[in-house]
Specification:
heterodimer, A: about 200 residues, eight-stranded mixed β-sheet, 7 helices, 8 strands, about 30% helix, B: alpha/beta, two-stranded antiparallel ribbon
Chain lengths: ~200, ~375
């Protein structure tokens, strides 16, 4: 049976990674993406996790995992070490957003990030009703959320523009279905492939 | 796979003799030598399930099980090795070996020097981690083991696992380097030097030929071990285990034991001085000091590790200040630069350097998971 990824953002990320590439997956969870990429595309990869139980899950999945605190930066990694540095649904939980994006593009030739869209329609409606949004893509209450940065697709693209980060590709989704019409309003989640301006 | 963890039970040590000379890194040559070792589990027909466990400064070949049903003789890593344990002897054939120069049965300073008919004592050649590995490889040859499924160890044992991956890249499929470092720091060497000076300045040392005088430099060895013990524990753990607790509830205003920590150190020192050989201690601390795979590469660890082919599992413990997590990360990053497979765990523990010997649930779950995914 061909293995499948249970998260559509991971499937989108996997589509952008070519066979035989090297990948660093920041916040790799149980290593599902890396395992999939290795088995399906012969990708050589490493995951980074700081939660002990996820490190254990990765080892059970037979993927390389490094228990490191990403907030400390990627100082031990050398420039251009990976084809792709991936961060799926973790950017909003990182305090040093700009530094992290810069580090991802230092260590990787390209970066791939996915994150929940705080500008999604139902989130705006929640705010209009006077409450912080709680949804499938933002499943936490305001008092127990691991998220520390709250931004929309437009916010993210503005930051990229201001910091010399090239958006090479974008895929936006609502309930797992692609969104092309006004994704800043209609998408609950987006995936970006990023590069440096030459 | 889900058998209840059991002990390997009663075990017996074996001896292997090596008649061909061993050229040591120092240039000295050991004409012949013996190694004491133990094995647990069964070598499979393909000889693909062998695992070598390397011991640390004061360890031995007695890794698991007991001698003569005596529970006081439990092996030093018995909590890890056995049927159904993380290093499962139902799957693996596990070998423990007393290193060259040791005092538990392998040829060392206490052995008779064939050139003089007397004990080697101070004349036993200085050896290195690399020499240990060479000697272990000859034991593997004798046992018909071409390559190890894994070579592992903690502390100085972890350094041997790393050295194995560099000296015999084709013979190590997995190197598991626990609570170790790619070199000692100046602070580490300093502690070792204090330990050595304690032994060397003991009036009973007699230039290392104390056997001939029928004494042992037990005061020096005791001090050396006391210093060592301080560095194996964390400040937090000492505070928790001893704090400022008084042995007899009152200040004695003398140099007798007041505090529990003093009592503990004296006990550990006395116990150790009662059985360990001072010359072995001196030489083993030197082996630690000299270990530096990057030395011939201008200090470039990544260049030094280029030869390695094994998959690595590296683990450190948060409160280990003797071999800190930072030192393990150096190895991780050097392996990454060489695109080697490596996993790294930084394990929460209050027990300092000694954590690698304890059966912490998460630590052992990681070890079990790693061993489980090794294909034979």
């Amino acid at each position: 049976m061909k293995p499948v990824l249970d998260r559509f953002d991971l499937a989108a990320i996997a589509n952008w990674i070519k066979p035989g590439e090297s990948v660093l997956d920041l916040g790799c969870g149980d290593g599902s993406l890396l395992k999939y990429l290795r088995e399906q595309k012969g990708v050589h990869g490493y995951g980074v996790e700081n939660a002990p139980e996820r490190v254990l899950a990765c080892i059970k999945n037979g993927v390389n995992v490094l228990q490191l605190d990403m907030e400390q930066g990627l100082t031990g990694f050398v420039d251009g070490q990976f084809h792709h540095v991936v961060m799926s649904q973790s950017l909003q939980a990182i305090r040093h957003t700009e530094k992290m994006l810069a580090e991802m593009l230092r260590v990787g030739r390209e970066a791939v990030v996915s994150f929940p869209n705080f500008g999604y329609r139902t989130h705006r409606e929640a705010i209009a009703r006077g409450h912080m949004p709680v949804s499938e893509s933002l499943p936490y209450e305001w008092y127990d959320t691991p998220n520390v940065r709250f931004f929309t697709l437009d916010d993210f693209e503005a930051l990229c523009g201001a910091r010399g980060i090239r958006i090479l590709e974008r895929a936006a989704f609502e309930d797992g279905q692609p969104v092309t019409d006004n994704p800043n309003l209609n998408a609950s989640l987006a995936v970006y492939r990023l590069g440096r301006l030459q | 796979m889900s058998t209840e963890p059991q002990s390997v039970g009663t075990v017996t040590a074996q001896r292997a003799h090596f008649a061909s000379p061993l050229a040591l890194k120092s240039g000295a040559i050991l004409p012949a030598y013996d190694l004491a070792y133990e094995t647990y589990g069964t070598l499979n027909a393909a000889k693909s399930n062998a695992v070598l466990v390397c011991h640390a400064l004061s360890g031995s070949h007695h890794v698991a099980g007991v001698y003569d049903d005596n529970p006081d003789t439990l092996g030093w890593w018995d909590n890890l090795v056995g049927p159904g344990k993380p290093l499962d002897t139902n799957k693996f054939f596990v070998i423990g070996v007393n290193n060259l120069g040791g005092c538990y049965g392998s040829t060392g300073p206490m052995s008779i020097n064939p050139a003089t008919g007397k004990r080697y004592g101070a004349d036993f050649p200085v050896f290195t981690v690399e020499d240990w590995v060479t000697a272990q490889a000859r034991l593997a040859d004798q046992l018909g083991i071409e390559s190890f499924a894994a070579v592992l160890g903690g502390s100085l044992g972890g350094m041997q696992a790393l050295a194995w991956s560099l000296q015999y890249p084709e013979r190590v499929r997995h190197a598991m380097v626990i609570a170790a470092a790619p070199t000692l720091t100046a602070q580490n060497i300093a502690f070792n030097e204090v330990a050595r000076q304690a032994i060397l300045s003991d009036p009973d040392f007699h230039g290392g030929h104390y056997y001939d005088h029928h004494v042992v430099p037990s005061r020096g060895l005791r001090l050396a071990r006391m210093v060592g013990h301080i560095t194996y524990l964390s400040d937090d753990q000492m505070a928790e285990k001893f704090g400022r607790r008084l042995r007899e509830g009152t200040h004695k205003f003398s140099f007798e034991v007041d505090f529990e920590i003093e009592s503990y150190l004296r006990y550990q020192g006395d116990k150790f001085a009662g059985f360990f050989d001072a010359n072995t201690y001196l030489l083993a601390t030197k082996a630690l000091d000299y270990f530096d795979p990057a030395f011939e590469y201008g200090g470039n660890l990544a260049a030094a590790l280029k030869r390695a082919k094994a998959q690595f599992f590296i683990a450190s413990f948060t409160t280990d200040w003797r071999f800190s997590p930072e030192r393990s990360r150096e190895m991780v990053y050097a392996l990454l630069q060489n695109k080697r497979d490596v996993s790294y765990a930084e394990i929460e523990s209050i027990s300092g350097h000694d954590s690698f010997l304890l059966d912490d649930a998460h630590y052992h779950a990681l070890m079990r998971a790693y061993f489980d995914q090794i294909t034979l």
